[in-house]
């Protein structure tokens, strides 16, 4: 029991520390708009290895937070602790040149345990958006954009900050086949953007800087339902749906524009600070089904709808469009309880996703698709290490702009499974 209390205390300490630091620094110009790059909100690394599907998954040894009804499947007396990190590589291309960046960072921290049989709770900390980017452009006399009046200059566009989601939820079986659940989500964080123009032709010229900062905080809720039935010969069928409520979040928006020169002189052109504004973020509607054979294989598919065109937040313009996502995947276990062949106990996963990105630029919406592989590597008792590899391609072709991103993500998580309140019969 003391070990379990220590684990909870450690969870709280790590959660607090991670809210104070950590920023995924993988460069993407798409992060310059809206709230930045949206992070996957489907589930654990088991789910990510299966293309992100998770609405209809029910697993007594992992957490699928995209549908809180799944928490009711947690084993009596069990305890789950899941901590994950990821490493990302982003390769940018405009058709003629390429640029790459990479970074390793925190991904999620989750914990779940049952209250009684068929009633479980879960809590966790997961990233929601990432606003990091660095873009620079140097205009010389030989460039077509050169203007003798302006002279040579360098433009810098820099963004940082992120939004984080903390959730606390519960799921319970209403009947033998139907379960329901609810998540309370606390969304918080800030995104900062800087646009600076440094003129190089004249030493005493004033340079321009415009800095924007959006802070956001608020609470919304997820509601979930799952239907699960057992078929003959250990086969099963699950269906699920979940709804995230749209919400007006308390926001603070700062906008500072100033000029400066090489001698340290600064001239503030304008400053506004609105600490009583609101931002509206839409909810998501998810549908999913899964089918398989217990302890052998699982296949699932999800469909997700989010009306981002209804979003409102300061400084966003009209860059957000509605999204539709199709996520699908499968898991296969050769022999879950093999005593002679370790590789037969490994869980093998594969999946894919086709979706709209919520960024709209010059009337064109960013498109993306990808595929993933995953492995569940058994450890002591029922604990395991979950590993996934995902490739996602994002593309945008407008009248004046062509941009492609090939994003590779490598994730690893420790899924620690233990039991509560079990007395040892022997010392």
Characterize the structure shown.
With 427 residues, the chain is mainly beta. The protein has a single domain (2-419), classed as Beta Barrel (Porin), CATH 2.40.160.60. The chain is 6% helix and 60% strand. It has helices at 2-20, 45-49, and strands at 37-38, 78-93, 98-116, 119-130, 133-139, 153-173, 178-199, 207-230, 235-244, 247-260, 266-281, 284-293, 297-306, 323-332, 347-361, 364-378, 384-397, 402-419. A 14-stranded antiparallel β-barrel has the order 2-3-4-6-7-8-9-12-13-14-15-16-17-18. Strand 3 (98-116) and strand 4 (119-130) form a beta hairpin. The mean pLDDT is 85.
In short:
This protein has 427 residues and is mainly beta. It has helices at residues 2-20, 45-49, and strands at 37-38, 78-93, 98-116, 119-130, 133-139, 153-173, 178-199, 207-230, 235-244, 247-260, 266-281, 284-293, 297-306, 323-332, 347-361, 364-378, 384-397, 402-419. Helix content is 6%, strand content 60%.
Task: Give me the count of strands.
Answer: 18
3D shape: elongated
Distance between the termini: 16 Å
Strand order within the widest sheet? 2-3-4-6-7-8-9-12-13-14-15-16-17-18
Topology:
Blueprint: H1 2-20, E1 37-38, H2 45-49, E2 78-93, E3 98-116, E4 119-130, E5 133-139, E6 153-173, E7 178-199, E8 207-230, E9 235-244, E10 247-260, E11 266-281, E12 284-293, E13 297-306, E14 323-332, E15 347-361, E16 364-378, E17 384-397, E18 402-419
Antiparallel strand pairs: 1-4, 2-3, 2-18, 3-4, 4-6, 5-6, 6-7, 7-8, 8-9, 8-10, 9-12, 10-11, 12-13, 13-14, 14-15, 15-16, 16-17, 17-18
């Amino acid at each position: 029991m003391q070990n379990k209390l220590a684990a909870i205390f450690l969870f709280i300490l790590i959660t607090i520390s991670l809210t104070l630091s950590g920023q995924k620094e993988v460069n993407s110009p798409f992060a310059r708009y809206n709230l930045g790059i949206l992070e996957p909100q489907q589930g654990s690394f088991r789910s990510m290895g299966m293309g992100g599907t998770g609405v209809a998954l029910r697993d007594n040894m992992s957490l699928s937070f995209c549908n809180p009804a799944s928490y009711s499947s947690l084993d009596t007396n069990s305890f789950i602790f899941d901590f994950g990190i990821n490493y990302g590589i982003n390769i940018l291309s405009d058709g003629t040149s390429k640029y790459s960046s990479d970074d390793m960072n925190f991904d999620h921290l989750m914990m779940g345990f049952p209250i009684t049989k068929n009633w479980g709770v879960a809590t966790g900390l997961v990233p929601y958006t990432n606003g990091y980017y660095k873009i620079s452009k140097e205009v010389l006399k030989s460039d077509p954009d050169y203007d003798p009046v302006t002279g040579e200059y360098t433009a810098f566009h820099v963004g940082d900050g992120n939004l984080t989601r903390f959730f606390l939820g519960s799921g319970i079986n209403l009947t033998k086949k139907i379960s329901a659940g609810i998540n309370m989500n606390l969304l918080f964080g800030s995104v900062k953007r800087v646009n600076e123009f440094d003129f190089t032709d004249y030493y005493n010229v004033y340079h321009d800087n415009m800095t924007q900062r959006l802070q956001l905080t608020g609470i919304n809720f997820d509601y979930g339902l799952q239907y699960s039935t057992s078929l003959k010969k250990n086969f099963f069928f699950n269906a699920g749906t979940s709804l995230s409520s749209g919400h007006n979040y308390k926001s603070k928006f700062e906008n500072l524009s100033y000029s400066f020169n090489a001698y340290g002189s600064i001239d503030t052109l304008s400053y506004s600070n609105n600490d009583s504004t609101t931002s509206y973020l839409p909810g998501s509607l998810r549908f999913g089904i899964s089918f398989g054979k217990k302890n052998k294989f699982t296949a699932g598919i999800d469909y997700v709808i989010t009306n981002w065109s209804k979003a409102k937040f300061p400084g966003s313009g009209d860059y957000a469009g509605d999204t539709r996502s199709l996520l699908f995947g499968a898991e296969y276990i050769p022999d879950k309880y093999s005593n002679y062949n370790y590789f037969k106990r490994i869980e093998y996963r594969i999946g894919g996703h086709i979706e709209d990105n919520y960024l709209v630029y010059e009337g064109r919406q960013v498109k993306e698709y990808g595929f993933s592989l995953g492995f569940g590597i058994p450890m002591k008792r029922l604990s395991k290490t979950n590993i996934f590899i995902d490739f996602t391609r994002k593309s945008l072709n407008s009248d004046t702009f062509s941009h492609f991103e090939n994003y590779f993500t490598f994730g690893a998580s420790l899924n620690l499974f233990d039991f509560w309140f079990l007395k040892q019969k022997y010392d």
